[in-house]
Amino acid sequence: MAAAVAAHVLVFPAPGQGHIKCMMHFATGLVGAGLHVTFLHTDHSLRRLGGAAAALAAASADSPRLRFMSIPDGLPDDHARAVGDIVELLESLRTNGSVPYRSLLASLVRAGGGSGGFPPVTCVVADGSMPFAADVAEEIGVPSLVFRTASACSVLAYLSVHRLFELGEVPFPADGDLDEPVRGVPGMETFLRRRDLPGNFRSCTENQNDPIVQMLIEITAHSHRARAVVLNTAASMEGPALEHIVPRMRDVFAIGPLHAMFPAPAAATSLWREDDGCLAWLDGQTDRSVVYVSLGSFTVISQEQFTEFLHGLVAAGYPFLWVLRPDMVGTIQNAALREAVAAAGDSKARVVEWAPQLDVLRHRAVGCFLTHAGWNSTLEAAGEGVPTVCWPFFADQQMNSRFVGGVWRTGLDMKDVCDRAVVERMVREAMESGEIRASAQALAREVRQDVADGGSSAVEFERLVGFIKELSTRDRS
């Protein structure tokens, strides 16, 4: 008979801001449910956190069951690890990082790692973009689950990729009509267009040899085999997509938005140093008067795009808080910062390198959010009822922005356009439309019900904790 043991979960996110953030909220929830958690970073990510996460784990009396460890990703320290390097980074982790990962995990299975009284690891929850992490765990006898950090609607599109090729809906010609309907994704036949498919579908060839598409095909095939798939989403937002995903997996847990259920300290979730001073600036603005602009942790824009955004924001006439990362506009960054503030005037513009986004979205002064429609940002705006203008950059963001503009109607979809007149018009509409604001606030109420006690996400998280505990008590010898 299997003996009961303490559940100890190793949580392993891909080394990107959005992945680390949502999986840290997840880990916080597991700790709150009484489980031990080892949160595994890459060495590079942990260095970017400045050791703050490790210090928090060591010093916080509230989280004695949480600790942070790291392994090398196999790339040189001075490697940029930028958006164009994603495939290289993940491949390096698979080929170079899997050996130290296997060694570390084996040691944690034997003795819990020898510190802090942690029991042996009994389960791995690995980022779905790193199939090797789940496979290595299973090979050494540790049951593993897959965590998909993207939206359910985009996961469903990835699940449909072979069907899309069979129907001839991808690839489509470079000069083809991007508004042509797409029929191959179930449940989305009435509103999905070519331009709404995940970005790399546009670069597919007849041989399906786009590296990102190949990676997505591999990830999706792996998800089919996983013991379970965890999704950071809510039934009120993506119920129809979940209904199509569930029959195709062994089990699915929809447990979001995780940030609303399990707050985590910014020091443990952000690879960028947040500028808290922008909150004081917001305090000096009137209610719903500020446009918050942030295009996420990976998006890069050209000088021309920067200029169009800037002129559109200034012409809209509202104060704006703009997040411009140091690597976002290349070598012109310092000049861009000065130009943005000067163009609007000090009292009407605040430009920062990174912001405490959730605090910003909750601030009474914020009237709308110009976003890249990354899934974390989309969930945070939805939970706070903030109208959005979406300018997606890559991956699942094209799908997310379509749902914002065409399904939930909580904002506007500005994809494939970067024109000052369009920026001005859409910002004004998002700020002034009573219909959009009402839809955003209605969705926020539904999301809050999902994450409240007895709500669908809260119930699913309890089921997941039970599932993990059951895996931990099984005899795996």
TrEMBL record:
InterPro entries: UDP_glucos_trans, UDP_glycos_trans_CS. Keywords: Glycosyltransferase, Transferase. Its EC number is 2.4.1.-. Pfam families: UDPGT. It comes from the Eukaryota. One of its GO terms (molecular function) is quercetin 7-O-glucosyltransferase activity. CDD domains: GT1_Gtf-like. Transmembrane segments: none annotated. Gene3D superfamilies: Glycogen Phosphorylase B. PROSITE patterns: UDPGT (PS00375). Belongs to the UDP-glycosyltransferase family. This is Glycosyltransferase. It comes from Oryza punctata. The lineage of its organism: Eukaryota, Viridiplantae, Streptophyta, Embryophyta, Tracheophyta.
